[in-house]
Write a structure and sequence with these properties.
The protein is of the alpha/beta class. It is built from 15 helices and twelve strands. It binds nicotinamide-adenine-dinucleotide (NAD). The site of nicotinamide-adenine-dinucleotide has 24 residues, from helix 7 and strand 7.
């Protein structure tokens, strides 16, 4: 099995040392409950039909139906989907949502698709996996390379297949199709609330820090503007074309406008000190808060010693691999771990699912207030676990999640009970 999944499991094994009676859960969590692979056969604009590999994984459903996004990415593979589904299992437990973890992907580069082709890929995905999906079984949402429009097409296709209205089968939809206000910016806003709630543990100026954002997509662009509004200076931004670092500050609104016109970050103008560089180089430029918001594994054993920051807010899934944990900790870099830092997205997806199932519609204000309360509540619990065992926030997040998963697995029936002992 490839190293990304092994790395994810390493953190689980470490957490298990702090959780009594974790052995049955560990055994169950060694492999996903089910993973389905498919080949999507899609008509392209030039008339030919192309095949795209696709997957959906339901990792663990002990705490409820599986929940997790669908990614369109040229680098997608089954190992990555399983790893992301594994992380979703822990993320939903950290956020105390009544869900297990799932994930899906299509191996396709969205940049190589025309404006019409993504809809055919989205509909083909739902046709292939419709028997896997259900509001009480497996509920997708957006991820890298997909957005509200893609979720709308997928919901429409699912409803056409089952023959009735079923908005709760997928979240992150446009608001007019049953999406929740606040979902698009929820991952970033949840991350900012996590930062706020942990401020007293972070050695940074809460209103005047230098921030670098790696990956200026949905999560990255929103976090850049939210943090700028908090008084921080955005000194670095990047996308797949490269990075820009400007100690004088970069205005996220200008970056967004530049990108909306098809511009690349590497071509942004700026002060006389501004520099264009690779994504890897940006990670090593000075910042107080570094926000990885793109792909997994960008911070690893080979560069952890050179990451020049104080706080890493992991909006991406898995941006720091397990080999880098100890080096960052030894250098006093506080990592706010992905399974907590980016849980605002799935939390608001949960609010969307609740609204779809009850027929209620919540205001933007109500969604935001609930998200803030949820992030503050779970940050407090996370700190309690970290302080009680003198462990990092990452380890505490895994311990906290594992405790909840173990409790659910035990409630389904334990060895001790069946042996007459419990
Ligand atoms: P997105 O597709 O909107 O944006 C991704 C951005 O990353 C794009 O700007 C792309 O150019 C850039 N990028 C791609 N490869 C890169 C690289 N090697 N280096 C730097 N930049 C690169 O995706 P998103 O929805 O913002 O998701 C970003 C990350 O956040 C992913 O890891 C995703 O799993 C995670 N996440 C997203 C959500 C959500 O609600 N969207 C929720 C939780 C976690």
């Amino acid at each position: 099995m490839a190293s990304v999944f092994k790395g994810a499991k390493k953190r689980l094994d470490e957490a298990a040392r702090h959780v009594p009676a974790a052995e049955e859960a560990l055994e169950k969590l060694t492999y996903p409950e089910e993973t389905l692979s498919a080949s999507l056969f899609v008509r392209m604009d030039d008339g030919r039909r192309a095949s795209f590999k696709a997957w959906r994984c339901r990792y663990d459903a002990s705490r409820g139906p599986t929940k997790g996004g669908i990614r369109f990415s040229a680098d997608a593979c089954m190992d990555e989907v399983m790893t992301l589904a594994f992380w979703m299992t822990f993320k939903c437990a950290v956020a105390d949502l009544p869900y297990g973890g799932g994930k899906g992907a299509v191996c396709v580069d969205p940049a190589n698709l025309s404006t019409k082709e993504p809809e055919r890929v989205a509909r083909a995905y739902v046709k292939a996996f419709a028997r896997f999906l259900h509001p009480d079984r497996d509920i997708p949402g957006p991820d890298m390379g997909t957005d509200a429009m893609v979720m709308g097409w997928m919901a429409d296709e699912y409803e056409a297949i089952v023959g009735h209205h079923a908005p709760a089968v997928i979240t992150g939809k446009p608001v007019c199709l049953g999406g929740s206000p606040g979902r698009t910016r929820a991952t970033a806003l949840g991350g900012v609330y996590a930062l706020d709630a942990l401020t007293s543990r972070l050695a940074i100026d809460p209103e005047g820090a230098r921030v670098s954002v790696v990956g200026f997509g949905n999560a990255g662009s929103h976090v850049a503007s939210l943090l700028q509004r908090r008084g921080h200076t955005i000194v670095g931004v990047s996308d797949s074309s490269g990075a820009r670092y400007d100690p004088a500050g970069i205005d996220p609104a200008r970056v967004a406008a530049h990108k909306a016109e098809g511009g690349k970050i590497a071509e942004l103008d700026g002060s006389s000190d501004a520099e264009t560089m690779s994504n890897a180089a940006l990670l090593e430029r000075p910042s107080d808060i570094l926000v990885p918001a793109a792909v997994a594994g960008q911070i690893h054993g080979g560069n952890a010693d050179r990451i020049d920051t104080r706080v890493i807010l992991e909006l991406a899934n898995g941006p720091v691999d397990a080999e880098a944990d100890a080096a960052l900790d030894a250098r006093g870099v506080t990592v706010i771990p992905d399974i907590f830092a980016n849980s605002g997205g799935v939390t608001v997806s949960y609010y969307e699912w609740v609204q779809n199932r009850t027929g209620l519609r919540w205001s933007d204000h109500e969604v935001t207030a609930r998200l803030k309360e949820a992030m503050e509540r779970e940050a407090g619990r996370l700190c309690g676990v970290a302080d009680a065992s003198a462990i990092t926030l990452r380890k505490a997040a895994y311990v906290h999640a594992l405790q909840r998963i173990v409790t659910a697995i035990e409630a389904h029936g334990t060895k001790a009970f069946f042996n007459g002992g419990g």
